[in-house]
Amino acid sequence: MKYLIIYPFDPALGASGRKLDAAQSFEALHDMAGINYETVYLEDLVSVAERRQAGSIHKKLAGFLASRNSPVARTLAAVVAGLDATRKKQIDGVMIYALTSRPLVAGTVIALVKRVPFWIYDHRSYYAELIKQHKKPSWFHRFTLPRAAGVLAMSSRHKADIEATFPDIKATVLPILPFAKTAAHPAPNPRSIKTENSGLLMGAWTNWRQIKRLDVLVEAFRLFVEEKGEGHLIIAGPLPDCDANRAAKRIIGEAGLEDRVEFAGSLERPAIVQMAGKLDLAVISSQYESLGLPALEALTAGTPVVSTSCGGPEDFIKNGADGYVVPVDNPLAMAGAFTKFTDNRQNFLREEIAGRAAARFSMEEQALALAAVYGSGSTAQGPLLP
Fold first, then answer.
1. Same-domain pairing of 222 and 320
2. pTM for the complete prediction?
3. How many Å apart are CA 142 and CA 346, to the nearest integer?
4. Alpha carbon separation from 29 to 33, 177, 371 (Å, rounded)
5. Angle between the 214-228 and 243-255 helix axes, to the nearest 10 degrees?
6. Quick one: 202 and 350 in the same domain?
7. How far apart are alpha carbons 92 and 112 in whole angstroms?
8. Same structural domain for residues 109 and 130?
9. CA dihedral 104, 109, 110, 113 (to 10 degrees)
10. How far out from the chain centre does Cα 309 lie?
11. Mean pLDDT for each 10-residue chunk of the chain (386 residues)?
């Protein structure tokens, strides 16, 4: 049996940081499970076709479509280029690594033409965000998802969101984690900037888009400092311009927290893993997370987590042992969790926290689960063109 993994990009060239780590880990799980596969990078195929616009009729057509200034045309170019690249390949199934339009549509058409089953790996909260924005699935979700042999979801909430929209879909919870080595890129040592009386050392790291609600985190931190008179907060990751980030910076300035809040900027994952182990407490303040990777990075380092009930973290944070889960968009409840943790730190045993996380999210367990996903569709008759 041989499977085709369809990426929207070449992970080695078109991605960095977590995207690259996640893609490499995805392939490592296939290797560990003994699954035979090869990869196709759609954006590379489209770019090559656009530059050359020569060769077979398929390549010329893909090049022509790619040169049009239209998202629909470029999606069609990805379909044509993908069909051309896989025309002579013998495959038994397709894994689509994304829920964005081009890989979804191209991967679905390739599977339909080859008459083989296909699966979709939604490795981000992309699907849930689209549903929230559009209030209903887009045309390419309606075209692809009902035809899929299955969807890999990152958490129980993620699975429920997908199945609520498409009741006939079989979604499987399979949180695939990056397993990057941590020897390189040493993290800044937050302890070196911590004063004798700064107390609890907290940290949070993500791409701080609006949905991540940095303002909620900073306001909760302000309330905690106001009550306890201690605390230091490390914030890592890109800070795009949005209402939440502007509000967070305003709170810091108005409350005089500049000496207690450090913006560490973007860090590579090995540095993040090292930093996670130095913290007393990690924080997730998002409105929605399909998984909540920072929480897992912290837990595997033995660091407790306070998280909003944003989706993924509820699956693996045991209240009072791994940390606390609080309502979304509620700084007062989050500040209360900070206080509760401070008053009960003796209950949070780092070795036990790390052990629970390692047992649940080991590569071996994930590889077995991935093999079972492919096995569930191996005897199914391939989907047919309508």
1. yes
2. 0.81
3. 50
4. 6, 10, 9
5. 20
6. yes
7. 12
8. yes
9. 160
10. 16
11. 83 56 84 91 77 72 81 85 86 85 86 92 62 66 84 84 79 72 40 53 94 97 96 94 97 96 87 89 93 89 95 90 96 98 94 90 85 68 32
